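I had to read the description of the data format several times before I understood it. For illustration, here is how one protein appears when written out as sequence plus structure tokens:
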Amino acid sequence: LEGLQKVYGQYLETIIPVADAQLTGDEAGKVRVFKDVLGLSDEDAAPVHIEVGRRLSRIGFEYKDRQSQFEQRKAFQRLVYLSYIVFGEQKAAFLLPWRRVFNLTDAQLFVARRDNARAIFSGHLAARGGEFPAERQFLRELRDYQLAIKLFDESAEEIVREASRKQVEASLAAAVEIARSPGKARDPAAVVEKLHHMLDYARKMAKFANDDDLIPGLGMPSIHNGPWDVESRRRDVKEVFKVFTEEVVSREGRFTPQIEADLKE
């Protein structure tokens, strides 16, 4: 048994990222598979997690420079988070005495779990190139992923609101660029197209807000408290919506209720 635990511990240490590298979200599955291949029960494997934690903690104390100490603390936090995912919350609470062995508080354990889940989720979105489409299937799969990595709803809400805000900001930025272009490049029709795309996106996100099977944080996107929530950017928004209004009114021949609704949103 000791030999198997040693091999398991070595594997566990190699799978925990160091320095600036983050967990990617697939580590827990790999650890479970390796544990099962070795034939270790959860009860046999849990002490190995504590022993790896001791080694990471000891190495951190041996470092003299603060950066290396910080990196070791991060590695320890990743181990804590990964252990919760490997064993499940109930078993981890019973089998892993982090508080007693390492004199940790509930707040410290919460931060380790929250921050690593956030990093994994953010990395998952970043791998899509920053795209956050208003598509039900995508948002449903994102909910499944959130639950799989044990990301708290509050954290998911913050990340989702920021991601949807960035989509709106990207459309606004494109519209502003067109509106400011010289000569024929200043195409009012293209400005209208960009803003219609943005409004359609915002309405879809608002429609999904009350669907419990989708990722939390959905709703009407807002540019408040973001980089566009400054006076210069607000002037840009007014400018493009002025172009939008003039172009659409010109097409329709009058100021319609739909135009008024678009401007309100």
